Amino acid sequence: MNYFNYVKGELFAEQVSVTELAERFGTPLFIYSHATLERHYKAFDEAFGEYPHRICYSVKANSNIALLQTLKRLGSGFDIVSIGEFERVIKAGGSPKDIIFSGLGKTTDELTQALEANISCFNLESENELYRLKSIADKLGKTATISLRINPDVDPKTHKHITTGKKGNKFGIDIDTAKRLYIAAKDMDNIDIAGVDYHIGSQICKLEPLTQAIDAAVNLILELRDLGINIRHLDVGGGLGIQYKDETPPHPAEYVNAIVERVKSHDIDLVLEPGRAIIGNAGLLVSKVEYLKRGESKNFAVIDAGMNDYIRPCLYEAWTDIDAVDSRIEADDFVCDVVGPICESSDIFAKDRAIKVAEGSYVALRSVGAYGFSMSSNYNTRPRPPEVLVNGDKVSLIRRRETYQDLLGPEYLLDEA
Predict the structure, then answer these.
(1) H helices of 239-300, where?
(2) What CATH superfamily classification does 4-32+280-408 receive?
(3) Strand pairing report for 322-324 and 333-339
(4) Contact of 73 with 389, CB cutoff 8 Å
(5) Which residues form the active site (predicted)?
(6) pTM of the prediction?
(7) Cα 36 versus chain centre, distance
(8) 276 is known to lie in a ligand binding site
């Protein structure tokens, strides 16, 4: 079910007019649907049935604390990649025991703070990280619970910039090295081996790469158990794709069933870290058309959102559906590139689209809930947009629009000569 629908030609977010939201909060504006967020979380959680599992939402996809709070209330744990994300989870009401700490370059301070807080598990990415964490654990006299992130050398068939499980990627540890490190860690004081972890990429729309990675991880777990290393859980990461255009990713239930089928006879608990698949289609970015610019060979609709607000089309050449918020507008379809105001030629959201727009009208960029606000910036000294969450007919401002004082406040002038 889609909770962003047209009612008599006007786009609504659940029971609230998108036009009214744009006029109330201004544009650009991120709008999220609570019902969509809840439905997508439950699609994963309920697919497991009674099988032992944890859903740990990937905070990097969208880290707004009200959204994290909503997911916590639904029963979610959290996958973090920085202490900043740790602080967000705690502020949102999460417990350290809800948290798995992933990421390639954890600093000594980050490892120390997370260990002192007694987080659930560290997903480690290198031999040096294992020995650094052991040193910290020895110094604190605390036990660190760990998984090693393996690199199974599986091609996820996704964009090269979001591939993370192939040989040559910076992430993870090759399986032979991981086996050696598990054997070494088995006899380490203050290290508790809990699991095996992998994450092969993002926006994956085929089941085969995901199942290849599962099979590689299960084979490693069985080898480790033969060596007396009792692996308790398998963390299969995230990466399941969503529909931006014409993709047909597996349904969460299809994916979960494939995982469970491969592990159910081996007494392995499961951890899943979805991000985009939960929040991606739950968000819109609403923008005002500032100018219609006609040229000799190309027309442009210049909107007030820029690549600083939503960078995916620029960074990944990613398709973004763009719709008129009010389809009743008195305007002909305008074939154009939809572009932002940023001083970069790459500030393009769509090329050669036929869209019904007029100067001053609103457009909605769809499926921007993941890697939208979380990857936004202040480039060109532009304040970042507000975020609102719609739940039925209730509207909550969950982040105000930044002010210029927010941007300039941390900076200092030089003393006078």
Answers:
(1) 252-263, 276-279
(2) Lyase, Ornithine Decarboxylase; Chain A, domain 1 (2.40.37.10)
(3) unpaired
(4) no
(5) 343
(6) 0.94
(7) 15
(8) yes
88 is in an annotated binding site: no
Report the top-level CATH class of 34-278: alpha beta
State which H helix or E strand residue 128 sits in.
helix 127-140
Residue 66 φ/ψ, nearest 5 degrees:
-70, -35
Helices (runs of H) and strands (runs of E) counted in the chain: 12, 21
d(C-alpha 13, C-alpha 8), whole Å = 14
Domain extents in the chain: 4-32+280-408, 34-278
Annotated ligand binding at 261? The verdict is: no
Query: In DSSP terms, which residues pair with 145 in a beta bridge?
Result: 192
Residue at 195: amino acid letter:
G
Q: Is 116 helix (H, G, I), strand (E, B) or coil?
A: helix
In the block, tokens 């080898």 appear at 223
The answer to the question of whether 384 is labelled as a binding residue is no
Is 121 tagged catalytic? no
Contacts with 413 (C-beta within 8 Å, 6 or more apart), sequence order:
none
User: Has 24 been labeled as part of a binding site?
Assistant: no
Residue of 270, 256, 238, 269 lying closest to 58 (CA atoms): 238
For Cα atoms 171, 176, 177, give the angle at the middle one, nearest 5 degrees: 60
Does the annotation flag 57 for ligand binding?
no
Per residue of the chain (417 residues), what is the pLDDT tens digit? 789 999 999 999 999 999 999 999 999 999 999 999 999 999 999 999 999 999 999 999 999 999 999 999 999 999 999 999 999 999 999 999 999 999 999 999 999 999 999 999 999 999 999 999 999 999 999 999 999 999 887 665 554 544 454 456 777 899 999 999 999 999 999 999 999 999 888 788 888 888 888 999 999 999 999 999 999 999 999 988 998 988 888 999 999 999 999 999 999 999 999 999 999 999 999 999 999 999 889 999 999 999 999 999 999 888 999 999 999 888 878 899 999 999 999 999 999 999 999 999 999 999 999 999 999 999 999 999 999 999 999 999 999 999 999 999 999 999 986
